[in-house]
Amino acid sequence: MSKPSNLSRRGLLRSAPTAALVTGCTQRGATDEPGAGLPVTSATAPAQLGPGKVPLQFSLNGKNVEVSVEPRTTLLDALRLDLDTTGPKVVCDRGACSACTVLVDGTQRNSCMMLAHDIAGREVSTVEGLAKGKALSPLQKAFIKRDALQCGFCTSGMLMTCTALLRRSGGRSLTADDVNEAIAGNLCRCGTYPNVVAAVLDVAKGQA
Predict the structure, then answer these.
(1) Ranges in the chain annotated CATH 3.10.20.30
(2) Distance between terminal CA atoms of the chain?
(3) pTM of the predicted structure, to 2 decimals
């Protein structure tokens, strides 16, 4: 006569998930790609940066630059701290105010939300690159004429966002709604939005 089992129904239910997990892991190891489940070694580990500083090359306002930064460094910090390009401002530091706006390959981006190494080999434009020597760009002149800047914290980001808008427009006429929509993410605590819109429309008319 066989000896009665001491396994209760509760014990059976408790052991079922464990058994299924073990079975699944065993089957997965047998069916996955060759090498799956093997320990990761220095020879099989994926390429990675850091944790120390790593060289980075990209184009900044038309000039090739090289800087060594840690992989965790944001583009904003690399620009301000390592390249002394202080046009992009540190305000919210979380992508909510757009005071740090730059153009990456012609597209406006919040530099506080990008890692510096993500722009390797790409083209970055900041407010410092708008003027040609001492000659201000038409948009910068329009900002001064229309009094579209006060405390200045948002100004560089506004200029870069509006520059991107004017380039996208390709010479077509813009409306106030177009400009308001474009600068919706740029926060101005001084409330110069109407003057910014007027400045952009002045430039847009000249381009058209």
Answers:
(1) 54-129
(2) 100
(3) 0.76
Amino acid sitting at position 191: G
Distance, CA of 204 to CA of 68 (rounded, Å) = 40
Listed in order, the ranges of the chain carrying CATH 1.10.150.120 are 138-207
Q: Where are the beta strands (DSSP E) in the chain?
A: 54-60, 63-69, 101-104, 107-110, 123-125
The total number of residues written for the chain in this structure: 208
Domain 54-129 architecture: Roll (3.10)
CB burial of residue 200 (10 Å; 0-12, 13-18, 19+) = buried
Give the whole-angstrom CA distance, residue 173 versus residue 188.
Answer: 25
- Burial degree of 180 (CB within 10 A; 0-12, 13-18, 19+): middle
In eight-state DSSP terms, residue 159 is H
In this structure, is the dihedral angle defined by the CA atoms of residues 87, 91, 93 and 99, taken in order, positive or negative? Answer: negative
ω into 51 cis (within 30 of 0)? yes
Amino acid at 133: G
CATH class of 138-207: mainly alpha
Task: List pLDDT tens digits, range 13-46.
Answer: 555 555 544 444 444 444 444 444 555 444 554 4
